Inverse folding.
């Protein structure tokens, strides 16, 4: 039998605990405090051949607005909710150089609208490790990007995606300051 003392008394009302990071983030805080560190958090990924509506559903399910596009363990690009809900699917369908075969929204895959990784300019992890939140906020102000990737150089010369900055997350956490 379960001991009644294991249970809290039923409250008349209850509140959610506010996240502590939002109230403690300052412009002088280390940039790492607002970066999604893929060394400690699982990256949200999508296959290039996945339908864009399914990718958007995944974003909603995960609570994110960016997915790394991965094929055979290699990051080939990024896709954001803005890419999916914006003009890119329409531009893809109306491209006169695609083919003479008519296409429908149901035919649009992530690879058709993603930003190829070669077109992404990631931040260097070495810089991010010394930067402040204000430094990253300044970068966002100088661009229309919604996300910034962070890359780290491996000893073998390859590059690994180490983190992600979200403009929305940064602005939300700095909102009180």
């Amino acid at each position: 039998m379960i001991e009644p003392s294991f249970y809290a008394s039923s409250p008349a009302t209850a509140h959610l605990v506010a996240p502590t990071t939002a109230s403690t983030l300052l412009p002088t805080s280390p940039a790492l405090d607002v970066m999604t560190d893929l060394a400690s958090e699982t990256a949200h990924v999508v296959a290039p051949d996945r339908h864009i509506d399914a990718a958007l559903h995944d974003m909603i399910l995960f609570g994110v607005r960016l997915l790394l596009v991965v094929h055979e363990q290699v990051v080939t690009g990024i896709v954001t909710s803005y890419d999916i809900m914006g003009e890119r699917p329409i531009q893809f369908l109306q491209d006169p150089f695609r083919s003479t075969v008519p296409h429908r929204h149901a035919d649009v895959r992530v690879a058709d609208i993603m930003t190829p990784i070669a077109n992404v300019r990631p931040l260097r992890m070495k810089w991010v490790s010394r930067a402040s939140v204000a430094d990253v906020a300044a970068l966002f102000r100088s661009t229309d990007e919604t996300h910034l990737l962070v890359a780290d150089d491996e000893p073998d010369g390859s590059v690994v995606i180490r983190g992600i900055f979200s403009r929305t997350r940064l602005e939300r956490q700095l909102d009180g300051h």
User: Anything to note?
Assistant: The mean pLDDT is 86. The longest helix spans residues 52-62. The chain has eight helices and eight strands. The beta strands are 36-37, 45-46, 66-71, 74-80, 115-116, 123-124, 147-153, 159-166.
